[in-house]
Amino acid sequence: MQKLIHDLSVTKPDYHGGSIVNLMRVIGDVCGASPGRSPYVPLPEIEERLRNAKRIVLLVIDGLGLELLRHIGRDTIFEQCLVRSLTSVYPPTTASAVTTYMTGLAPQQHGLTGWFMHFRRLGAVTAVLPFVPRFGSDSLCRSGVEIGSLIDCPNFFDAITCPSLAVLPGSICDSDFSRLLGGRSRRVGYESLEEFATTLTSVCNGQTDTGFVYAYWSELDRLCHMHGPSSGTVATHLRDLDAALAPVLEACADSGTVLIATADHGFIDSGPAERIDMDDHPQLQDMLSLPLCGEPRTAYCYVRSSCSAAFTNYVENELTDKARIVPSAQLIEEGWFGLGAPHRELLARIGDFTLQMKERYTIGDCVAGERRHRMEGVHGGTSAAEMVVPLVIAGP
User: Fold this and answer.
1) DSSP 279
2) Cα dihedral sign for 155, 159, 162, 163?
3) Side by side, which strands form the sheet with 186-190?
4) At the topology level of CATH, where does 272-378 sit?
5) In a 3-state reduction of DSSP, which class is residue 238?
6) How many CA atoms lie within 13 A of 215 on its CB side?
7) Residue 366 parent element (H or E)
8) Rounded Cα gap, residues 260 and 389, in angstroms
9) What is the spatial distance between Cα 337 and Cα 326, in angstroms, rounded to a whole number?
10) What is the number of other CB atoms lying within 10 angstroms of the CB of residue 340?
11) What's this model's pTM, rounded to 2 decimal places?
12) 80: helix, coil or strand?
């Protein structure tokens, strides 16, 4: 299969009316959330359509960027019902964007800034969604750490007034993260694409008493990471997803259900030639006080206080074609994470400097006992390919 020609132009989130957080604001308005809970304007053109719906189903297909949809999704139900594009949040990655869907807020407010995060109260780097320390695999909750003491953002499901349902992969349906941000929604797990489609068809036909449904499909993301978004495996999976979900969209038209399908981020292909290993830059690694945090495409660097100038010089001289180094506080000032007052821990969670990787480059390190992950597809950077996602709407 021909490789995608990725749009690598630097793209910031459009928090002023064109982002997934603006989509969540209009859904919240329609479902009874207080307008004052979100500092973001609602997505303007779909409010009337949502207000006339009996129920709203938000389908988040992890990794289905607009570029990928246009390349391999021609003639699918998703392409046929495409309304417009949206931007994700920054960084465009599951930890930050799915949290936006489950809170209705941008990272500026919810404070989750990537897969790996340094929580000051914990004193360790944590993989935030599974809620495990980077050096192990046991949930921090089993060690007595209350997840709500670190992830302290309000959830979307408790802010709305209508009954809600969360349809999630069985592996994460009852995870610490899902229980926390799922709020009072009823959570239903699934084990296969067939079961996922059957559950959604039942919901869209009105067989459950819900006004808002959040449905999350993760398999596309997994395959993109393993094989790359340009792979035949990913194209085959999207066709399977299209066939399985066609009855779901058909059910919407007959039941007064509006289904909104979108994504948390897009993807780019990135192979061994684009991987920068910190072990190959020991001088740079010695200047850090913590392992890299964030994402392979957006790396937060906690730099020893005496090494700031040397760290900047090294990146600008040795990695100038591969990374843009930015004081992390500048990203907040420039509005990358959102608008309005920031989460009180936001600055502490993005380190001293951020490496925004250029072209298709990634950067990573490895702590003791950690297995190296060699991914063929990545996301979390500043490119349009990673940032821009589709807005698909079906139903009356």
Assistant:
1) G
2) positive
3) 82-87, 388-394, 257-262, 55-61, 212-217, 164-169, 186-190
4) Gyrase A; domain 2 (3.30.1360)
5) helix
6) 25
7) none
8) 12
9) 14
10) 13
11) 0.96
12) helix
Residue 335 has pLDDT above 90, yes or no: yes
pLDDT of residue 1: 64
Q: Helices (DSSP H) in the chain: which residue ranges?
A: 20-30, 47-51, 66-72, 77-80, 94-103, 107-110, 147-150, 176-181, 193-204, 219-227, 232-255, 282-285, 308-318, 328-333, 384-387
Q: Supply φ then ψ for residue 59, to 5 degrees.
A: -100, 115
Preceding amide of 91 cis, omega within 30: yes
Q: Which two tokens stand for residue 130?
A: 């599974």
Distance separating alpha carbons of residues 333 and 335, to the nearest angstrom: 5
Which residue ranges does the chain devote to CATH 3.40.720.10? 20-268+383-394
Q: DSSP of 216-237, one letter per residue?
A: EE-HHHHHHHHH-TTSHHHHHH
Residue with tokens 């978004």: 229
Q: Which long-range contacts (CB under 8 A, 24 or more apart) does 125-129 make?
A: 125/290, 125/291, 125/293, 125/367, 126/150, 128/95, 128/177, 129/94, 129/95, 129/98, 129/172, 129/175, 129/177
Top-tier CATH class for 20-268+383-394? alpha beta
Structure tokens of 87?
Answer: 């931007």
What percentage of the chain reaches a pLDDT higher than 90? 85
pLDDT tens for each residue of 237-278: 999 999 999 999 888 888 899 999 999 999 999 999 999 999
> Residue 221: which of 111, 376, 64 has the closest Cα?
64
